[in-house]
Amino acid sequence: MAIFFSLSIFLGASLLFIVQPLIAKKLLPWFGGSPLVWLSIVLFFQTILLLGYLYAYGLTKLKSHFTQIKIHGVLITASLFFLPIIPLETHLVSDVWPPISIFILLISTLCLPAILLSASSPLLQYWYCQCYQTDFPYRYYALSNAGSLLGLLAFPFLLEPYFGLKFQFYAWSVFYMLYILCVGGCLYITYSKAPKVSVVTTSQAVLKKSDIGAWTLLTFLGSTLLLSSTQVILQNVAGFPLLWVAPLSLYLITFIITFGHPRFYVREIFSGIFAILCATIFYYPSHHTLSFWVQIALYSALLFSGCMICHGELIRLKPHTSRLTTYYLFIALGGVLGGVFVNLIAPVLFNQWWDFYLTLFAILLCAGFYYFISTSSFYAHFAVKGIWLLAYIGLGLLLCYHINTVNVDVILNHRNFFGSFEVADKFPNNEEYHYHSLTNGNIIHGKQFVFAPKRNEPTTYYSQQSGIGLAIAYERQLNQNKYRGLSIGVIGLGAGTIASLSTLNDSLRFYEIDPDIEKMAKQYFYYLHDAKAKTEVIIGDGRIKLLEELANTGSNQFDVLAIDAFSGDAIPVHLLTLEAMQIYLSHLSHDGILAFHISSRYVDLYPPLQALATHLKLFTFTTVNDEDLLKGIFTSKWVLMSQNGDLGAFLYVSQNLIFPPERMAPLWTDDYNTLLNVIKW
User: Fold this and answer.
1) 507-512 and 534-539: which strand pairing?
2) Judgement on whether residues 182 and 46 belong to the same structural domain of the protein
3) pLDDT the model gives residue 97
4) Are the C-beta atoms of residues 165 and 674 closer than 8 Å to each other?
5) Distance (Å, whole) CA 676 – CA 523
6) Which whole-number Å values give the CA distances from 668 to 368, 577, 612, in the listed order?
7) Are residues 157 and 37 in the same domain?
8) d(C-alpha 346, C-alpha 644), whole Å
9) Are residues 496 and 540 in contact, defined by beta-carbon separation less than 8 angstroms?
10) Which of 581, 485, 565 is nearest to 531 (CA)?
11) In whole numbers, what is the pLDDT of the chain averaged over residues?
């Protein structure tokens, strides 16, 4: 009969964690595709986990097991009213800070089911101990984390590639009802086997404040390392569901290992590995230029070894089983505090990744401290002190070197909900080559020469021979007898480089989700200021704003509409679906051109764009231009779509037209899309 406890704990954890990327993918289009949507959702579920553990703690303080069973039975029955758990856009509160809006939406969608799922592990472990009088129930916590891991990995590998979101939400609701049936079996067993009244002796109940502080601190550090390293990965590597769940999966694996088999944690080994990885990242400040898989391996090893230290020390400080729910309560509290620190406090305090760097040092300090207090030999004490002091001095010097190197010529570092960016002043002593650059993650998003005769030259991915340059040139030729300028729309502002391609009488409208980008573009770059066209910047998600304009003022009749809204190498998939395409086409003139900037080291977006063009009966052309670093021009890849097939002849003459190999790709919609099959493995 104990199988009901195993099934309930495993299934509850799976459902709790599978819903997180599912919800995140549903919400991404509503918040501009920001990678911090995922981190806000993680913070919400950390908070829910704390509430669930607090509920379990309070419930188990009731002396009557029958009363505990009745209360829990009523609540799990009431949670059925939340099914099916499908977030509704009508529940969004648009005039508040995005993380708060996400919290409000999720509370109205699945608050009670999520709290009950969170309470499953500590509550059912407690009842299991009461029924079977076991002394080590912590393997059930490992089982819970195994279920969580399965849920996370199922999303990118089993669900997202094959099923739409609507189907996944309904399937989740069906499995939630199965979970309730399993919990019902646990309630029956507890009612039958557990003593009527719970009894705890005084000796068992004693808790040290130092232990409570250590539980909270260690889980705080583990949570902070998870979230801060995830931010760095999403910013510097790529942002798609597989990289949402990979760090969290490693985090859960460390719980599975340390709580299931504590002997596998060897402090000296993991501390040494962690220190070497920290030194590697600090010593090699350009590690983000490494290949995709090398970066993933580096960050993953760092996260895994750091969390093994935190969770390995945590299980060594486990209390008596009578204090099980208290133990899990402070574990959850530490996780929430870590989420609050990384998501809410760090972006205000730091304009760089100091939360990431400081967490690395704090974990090393904890490892050294616990090794020190666990060693009785005087000489070992002395040796440990010396080694860790030297290691700290060495790592501190490497961090200073790292910060100084990555901040060479940087005149602005900025970080907010949408990510971080920096502006650099390069070669200030060389008038001809002096320029400002805008970098987001490891991608340059704009570059402008400061020297007046050169400062209006189009650079980076927007030269005259780039896809966007050719699209504008073709439309100018097509409309030369109409005595009017062009109407150009651009999703994604950057430094505003595309403004240098405009001429007198043109109108140019940028859509930019981050208001700080507009301020930066006007303060450090001249493209908007010097533009010959009439320019305006609309703050907000481009897709949402275009839809609002279509409803309020009708079609903009753009001659060219460019979609260039990458963040680092993160891909805003909601801008590349059938529903988004229909909005774009509604704003396009009859012979207008859609221009997609698809330069990326990690994904190939041509196949899904080709599938969309085929579905909508559009002509599709791909261009690649040569680089000219002396002029600040980079190689760029653009896909141009139009109802006008004559565009192909114009592009053929330009000699920049290429013909990518045909690759089959499913049609991307808001309900179904996956980056798994477009990754450049």
Assistant:
1) parallel
2) yes
3) 75
4) no
5) 39
6) 50, 5, 7
7) yes
8) 50
9) no
10) 485
11) 84
